[in-house]
Amino acid sequence: MSSGFGLNGGRGRCFPFWQEFAKCYVQSDSPRKECTNQFEDYQECLYHRKELLRLSIVQEEYEKEKQRKAEGKDATVPAKA
Question: Disulfide bonds, which pairs (predicted)?
Answer without folding.
Answer: 14-45, 24-35
